[in-house]
Amino acid sequence: MAVLLTGGAGYIGSHTALCLANAGFEPVVLDNLSNASPEAIKRVSRLTGKQIPLIEGDCTVKSDLEAVFAQYPIDQVIHFAGLKAVGESVAQPLRYYRNNLDATLTLLEVMAAHGCRQIVFSSSATVYGTNQEMPLRETFPLGCTNPYGWTKFMSEQILRDAGTADPNLSVVLLRYFNPVGAHESGEIGEDPSGIPNNLMPYICQVAKGRLKQLNVFGDDYPTHDGTGVRDYIHVMDLAEGHLAALNYAQAHRGVEVFNLGTGVGYSVLDLLHTFERVNGLRVPYRIAPRRPGDIATCYADPAKAAELLHWQTKRSLDDMCRDAWRWQSQNPMGYRTAQETDA
Ligand code: NAD
Ligand code: UD1
After folding, report:
1. pTM metric for this prediction
2. Ligand nearest to the CA of 200
3. Which of 71, 77, 239, 248 would bridge 19 by S-S if both were Cys, CB 3.0 to 4.6 A apart?
4. Is the shortest distance between the CB of 228 and ligand 2 below 6 Å?
């Protein structure tokens, strides 16, 4: 069963490729390497003992996609490809709309031309905007606060409309909460370029001494300790969610949306102190002003995924912190070598 993973060399895609290969699928990765290293897929091939094809190409370029569909018998697609930095999307909205929407549109056109009718899409909890009621359910009203979020919202709409127009299409929209951690081997993980925006990679780099201290953005939120609460999900649990989504897409037509989260919220200080405890480290921090655009609390109701996808998370916050640190300490420069970083 050949499955195309657009953006599959990235953080979530590479972990999903590993999970799919181990489950007997044949992942084929198309990535323009704008935010990924080919080393990730080399390592997935080594870990699984299966040669996973990585095609360097762009999802917004029809001929690049055509070439993949011509070469491989693609039955299903997981569409990870996209730009994902919220702050950058505010500064460069057109680049985000062009890349993320064009990728979705071009992919759907090429899939239709090749009779491929099953797609799983990487959406985000960001589409719930500033909803106050928790846990977040798939039926809640949507709204976004930045261009990145709107590209997810609009891609969801494009996929829904495509599903309405073609009743043979299977569309599974997955709204990820906060993916963290790494594969248990420590061989693959999250490799942000530059200074990380997200909490876990930032903590890891402080622990490694690459950054001086963590800035905790606000301690006056209405949460149990005043710091922001999020639904952190182990990236391997998330990867397994994609396997469940592919199985679901095989068995069902139409459009369905699922939250992929644990259903449990932890604060910034909960995460920080868990990281320190399980890894036996001290991570210096200071309380800093709130980050504009942040909300106090965000966590999923994962009941629908449990019921229909037969999927639930297995890994704890301790596992997330331990695995994130194993990856970071074994690969202080991510996929780059020290030499490349100096160059
Ligand atoms: P990532 O940046 O590691 O992976 C995305 C990949 O897409 C990268 O490898 C990049 O090189 C590639 N890419 C970008 N534009 C492309 C294009 N036009 N053609 C081909 N490849 C292209 O990000 P990730 O964390 O693995 O996220 C995967 C998907 O999940 C993204 O769509 C992201 O928006 C979404 N998502 C991520 C998170 C998160 O916290 N990581 C949360 C919610 C949703
Ligand atoms: C961010 C994105 C969201 C995306 C998600 C994916 C923003 C505003 N939102 O969510 O669109 O889907 O990543 O994981 O960027 N924090 C600190 N110090 C730091 C970094 C973060 O205190 O250096 C806090 C934040 O205030 C927040 C929590 O840690 O309370 C998690 O932050 P982060 O990892 O950036 O994720 P989100 O903001 O939830």
Report:
1. 0.98
2. 2
3. 239
4. yes
